[in-house]
Structure formats: structure tokens, C-alpha cells
Amino acid sequence: MIETRQYDFDAIVVGSGISGGWAAKELTEKGLKVLVLERGKPLEAGSGYLGEHAPNWKFPYQGKKPRELYAEDYPVQSKVEHSFNEGTRQFWNNDRENPYAMDEGKPFMWARADVVGGRSLLWGRQTYRFSEMDFKANASDGHGIPWPVEYRDIAPWYSYVEKFVGINGKAEGLPQLPDSEFQKPMPWFALEETIHARLKKKAPDVTLTSARVAILTEDLPGRSACHYCGPCPRGCSTGSYFSSQSSTLPAAKATGNLTLRANAVVERLEYDENSGRISRVHVIDAMTRERMSFSARIFFLCASTVGSTQILMNSVSKAFPNGLANSSGVLGHYLMDHTLGLSGAGVFLDNMDSYYHGNRPTGLYIPRFRNLNGQDEDADFVRGYGYQTATLRVDWQTGMNARGFGASLKESLRKPGPWIFALAGFTECLPQESNRMYLSKKKVDRYGIPQVAFDFEWSENEVRLRRDAKRQADRLLKAAGAVISLLGNDDMSMPGEGIHEMGTARMGADPRHSVLNAHNQSHDVPNLFITDGSFMTSASCVNPSLTYMAFTARACDYAAKQLAQGEL
Amino acid sequence: MNRREFLQCAAILISGASASQLGFSLSAEQTTYLATAPDYNTTAVDYFTPAQRKIVAAMAEIIIPRTDTPGAIDAGVPKYIELMAANWLNEGERAIFDAGLQDIENRIPQAYGESFDQLPSSQQLEILEALEEDASDSEWYEFGNTLREFISEAPFICQFKELTIWGFFTSEEGASQVLRYDPMPMYFDGDVPLKNDQSTWSSPF
Q1: ipTM of the complex as predicted
Q2: Domains, in order of start, for chain A
Q3: Which chain A residue shows the shortest CA-CA distance from B173?
Q4: How far apart are CA A499 and CA A426, in angstroms?
Q5: CB nearest B205 (choices: A63, A67, A410)
Q6: Three-state SS for A409?
């Protein structure tokens, strides 16, 4: 029988960040009419990047933070020290206008963007594949449920997205960190070459390699190789780093099949009991408060882990009293984030007569080296961690509290000091039922939508991983030739601070214990797909965005085929 | 894309964009390019008395003097300090600052017979060194204690030094004539010979 119902769109995508941008591109390129709903403000690529290339003397207070403003309007977002400042603030959520219930449950930091493009404008751009070991981790050590997907299922999709994203890095042939499709790597500091040679001799169990980064070192159509100005998160009008603004949304627009609606706050999805499908999405305009709704054949939730889960939890019906697509009861549970923090930093007096040109917007990377072949004998934890590194030359900012006055002070402050090479451990987080987000029963936002609250605590395994990351960092810095190994700590980061929140609508083979099947499709509601971090069944220790992209592209392919076959 | 093309492209983007062309309703804040905004240091302020302005300028110049390159006064640091004292320090920090400045203003003429700014620079230096000596047990001087926003309890001399040094090296003069400034490096090379007298780069925030 021929479908006679009329739909506003073939597909509706909620969210325009990394995952939503990919869903928009893939679905429109397959000929579907797509509506993208973004709750944030409109933003034009390039001309909307108001902080780009502004010199330090243009910044309010010449770069000292507007403390009162941040305390009142951005108490959460301003804690993202590596990318929140007056050059990027326009992209971030205003915590006063759009709060979550921070005082309920246990503290969790929720970093949010508030513009078209979402956090793809602000991300760290680190792109690593999950490995076979990562996809097997749950099945082999019994934490969480097994992934319904193997590495070989997703490998071609990694390749597919990588060629479009543009990732620079160095092939190493490591089983624990499969190589991507690479552009040429960014050059290294002389000190990094020195350290590389020493580690090869004195710590052959680790590999120091180029970070794998979604920044072009070779031009792609419509995007230019990096010009090394430095602070990527202000936006990049040459499209040198991957964001949905620079890459996927323009591709989707070019098809003529895209409708993009900013200021569109999704309140809930409407479930139709007769068809067993989602029929409509209900939206509130953030500026006018006008209510509207749109229908479509399929719905992709790409609103970020917490955002998508909030929408499902707020979409209750007779059939789904505990949240849409939540017959399993796991929705909102198994929340994960990577712990991160400085594990160690070394002062180096090598290569003192070598300096640099340009601001390289990344460090290097040390892939996981613990528990690679079963359990290491000296490891009191499962799984592992990788280090992102940073290399910097001490300058006036580090030395400004020196004693003294006058020409000699000025002279010492203007000249380069020693080198510092730092290791920041990113450790895997185990999926735990008790780590969860939920809707507050007490607080609603300005649209009347219940606010999100969190209950999250690091497990003993993450504490032990952090401890080991500090211990090993000290060993590696000494092997690397640091004259002083300092500043290392094993403090736990604030949950959420990794901005890798994931896992609240996990995929699995068994509908009793998972929300999604192997194609990011809801077990309960066949025309619902979720492809942001909420689908993640485990966290690995590597940055997850690349995996969201690959699974999104794969899910779009599957959904479009199902539609074509009349299954949806 | 080479450097020249890039700058042209950036210039077109900046000059060509306006709210009406975008078709959106944007606030003034959303359409102001920071790169084309007036320098922060041109913001109007009237917090110090004329006598205090002279003292502040003389103190800043003792900390970062003009040598063969610009000094604190050339870089507009006294104005920066006035802006920060008026608009950025919190109440407690401002009380410490105001009391410290008034102390110089009142005590120095009694002890030396002339206002701080009228004294020979050797005496000015002596006075600041004595203040630093008195403040030497402040945590402000702790090794590595610089990667933070501000130390609210820091004594006046520490506040003053921090504002001077920060204001100087983030100014256009300090960043481009004392440090080195290149907004558009176009390539990265991690092994460039460091010539004997070269300054660090001015790093973007």
C-alpha cells in the first residue's frame, strides 16, 4: 500500500553540532528534505566569528577576565579555561538564562554551546579511532554491556568521515589506536624530537606521536590549510578546522534540501500509539516563545548526550511513562566522561637555542600503553589512558611574579625561559548504572521544560587510573630528560569537565538493557535515531567526536535505505 | 592560500558583514568585531586625581622603563592601571590598592620632602624596593604562582607590579615592539634558531 500521509519533512535532525551537522549532510545528500532544529542563536560561518584574530590589546581588561560577568552569567561555562574567554563567549551558553539544576544530586559540569554549530566550534579537535580492543572491552572485562558493533563494522565509516573532515596525523600501525586517513602531520618542536629519541631508548613501551587533529595541513575544497594564528575556538573563517559551520552544514545547504531553524528549542517528541512511531516534534521559539510543531518520517536526535536525553525524558506518553524509547529503563543511566588533568610537567634545558614560528594549535599524543595484552601485572585497574601533551616555552606570563624592577626585570621578562613539556592524562571511565542524569522535579527553565540534574561519582577504577597516569608521567618525564619533574597531580577532574559526556541512551543487542540497536535506532520506536554521545556503550580513553561522526554517517545510510525499502 | 590572500579574505569578510545582510536580528554585541573595536586602553576613565596619575605613571615607569624599546608610559600602562583599579578590582582589592596609593601620596612628601613623581629615579626605586621587601612573604611571590586570575589578598606593590607587567605585555607597544607579534604566521616551524637577543612571541589568548 502506498503511503498517503503528508509530512512536513522527510527527516528532522535536532542539533547542529558535530553529530547534527553530519546527519544533515548525509541525509540531504541522499535526497531527503531535512529540517535541522538548533536551540542556539543564528551564526554565519566566517562573518559571525566576532573574536577571530583580535589582538590582545582589544580584549576587555586586556585579557583579564570580567569576573563579575562570568560569576553571574557563566559560572559553569567559564570554567572551561582552555576555550572560554571574551573571544569565544558569543558561542557559549548563558548559565543564568539557561540553567540546569546544579544544586541537586551530585555536581556535574555541563558545558554547552548556544549557537548554530554547537560545540563543534569549541571542541579540542582531537580525533582518534576506537580500536578493536575498545569495542571488545565491555564484553571481556564484564563492565557494562557488550557493544553490538565491532571495529570492522565501523572502520569503513571512520575512513569515510575522515576524508571529509581532514585529519592530520602520523600513521603508527598501533593495534590500540588504528590509523586514520591522514593529511600530513604538523611539524614538531625540536624539543619534542629530542624527547621522542630519548623515550624510544628509555621507555620503548610508549609511542610519542603527532596528535591526530581535525585541522587541515592541506587544502580541501572551500577550506584552507591552517594559518597557525593559534586560538581555534574563536572560529576560523578559512574553515581550517572542522566544525559543522565550516564543513557539514555548507555541504547540506548546497543540496537545496536543508531547512535550518535556529532559536528552536525542542520541548518534546510526540509518540503516535497507532503507528508506533514518532509523529511530530514540538518546538518553542527562543525569541518569540511561539509554539510550533513539525512532522517527519524519521527523527535524528543529535542534541548532545544530555540534551537528547533530556528531550526523551520530557517526552512521556501512556506507552512510555518513563521517557520515550525507554522500555529498558536505562535511559539517563551509565553516564560517562573522561577524567582529565595534568599528570606531570617537566622543565627542560635542551634545545634552548631553538625557537619556533607560528602557533601550533595542538600538542602531541601518547596512545594507551597499559593493559594492552591482557592485564598488566602491576596494574590495579582495568583499561587505560592516553596522554595529550603540551610543549611551551616559559614567557612573561609565567615569570611575572619575579622580584625586582627596571631594565633588568623588563629584559628577563621579554626573553624566552626554559621549555616545559606537559602530559595530561585522559582516562577511560567505566559505565555505571548509578551515574545518571535525570529531570528535576523542582525546577523548570524559562520555557517550562524541567531542568536537568545529575548524580555522578568517579569509581575506584578511575581514581586508580589517574594515580597510575601520574606515576607513569613522572617516569616518562625523567626518561625524557626533564631537569625537574613538577606540577603533576592525580586529583580527579570535576565530572563533566572532560566535556565528553556520553552513554545515557546506550546501544546494545538486548532491548532489555539498551535503548538503541547497532544502527543507532531505537529498539522501541523505529523512526527514532540517536547519534550523539548518548549512544556510547563504553568510553574508551580517546576523544570521542570522531566516533560520533562515523556512527552518524553509518546510521544515516541505514535509515535512508530502510526508508527506501519502505521499512520506515 | 597565501598570507596576502588570507588578509584580503579576512578584510572582505569583516567589511562585508552587517546584520541586515545576514537577515537576522542581532544585538550590537553580536555584530561588533573585537579586532576592529577600539583598544581597551582608550576606554574613558576618571578614577585617580591628577596627583595620583603622576605617581602611578612614575611607579609604572620604574617597573618597566623605556630603554631602547618602549616603556610603561609609552605603552599606556598608567591608563590601564586606572581602568583596572576603577572597573576590574573587586571591593577588597580596590581597598588595598587605594590605601597603598594614598600611602605613597601622603607618606613620601613627609619623608622625602617631595611627591614620589618628583624624586630622582634612584629614590623612587629605593621606595618600591622597600615596599617589595615588606611584601616578600606574600604568596604572590611563590614559584609558579602565576597561572591564576588574581590574588585578592596581594599587597599593593604586588597588585601594582602585576597590573603594570600585564598591561605592558598585552599592549600593542609591549606586544609588538618589546615582544614579537605576528597575527598571521601562515606556517609552523618548531626549530627556528633563536638569535641571542630575540624576545618571545606575544601569544594570543
Answers
A1: 0.94
A2: 1-91+111-166+243-338+431-436+500-568 (3.50.50.60), 170-241+339-427+458-494 (no CATH)
A3: A57
A4: 12
A5: A63
A6: helix
